[in-house]
Amino acid sequence: MFYYLRSIKTNDTPAFNAYLLISLLQGLNIESIYIIVAYIFRFSYTPNKNIIIYIGLSLSIALFIINYFLLFAQRKNIFDKYELLSQKIKSKRMIYFWAYVTISVIIFFVSVANR
């Protein structure tokens, strides 16, 4: 993702943008899992608006902190590790990344639509 974001000329902070995008996708995946599990087990708890806001903020902050220490703080090591890969492997990983993004977004919107 970093290599794709780095190729955009107007992008000044590709590593930070990749960090934010990964955190967003993880949040979508967690919400999708919650919706699917609630649908399967007929779980129909609807908290009030304030609780939803606090849960969303807590989840976002937790994801940002975890991803900061696991990914963003170690970005130099990660960049160096993947810089040495062959073009064939980089292409495969880019296909896997875009498949992950596409499937995550589709599953999220389908689960929300069928809620």
Overview features:
115 residues; single chain; 0% strand; mainly alpha
Characterization of this structure:
The mean pLDDT is 84. The chain has one domain (15-113). 80% of the residues lie in helices and 0% in strands. By secondary structure, it is mainly alpha-helical. The two termini are 31 Å apart.
Q: Give the H and E element order.
A: HHHHH
Taken together, the total number of domains comes to: 1
Strand content: under 5%
Number of helices, counting only DSSP H or I runs of 4 residues or more = 5
Give the CA-based shape: globular
Average predicted confidence as pLDDT: 84
Instruction: Please give the share of residues in helix.
Output: over 70%
End-to-end separation: 31 Å
Uncertain segments:
none
Structural class designation: mainly alpha
How many strands, which pairing sense, and closed or not: the largest β-sheet? none
Task: Please state the CA-atom Rg, rounded to the nearest Å.
Answer: 17 Å
Number of separate strands? 0
Summary, kept brief:
The protein is mostly helical. It has helices spanning 2-6, 14-40, 49-72, 75-83, 87-113.
Reconstruct the topology from this structure.
Elements: H1 2-6, H2 14-40, H3 49-72, H4 75-83, H5 87-113
Helix pairs in contact: 2-3, 2-5
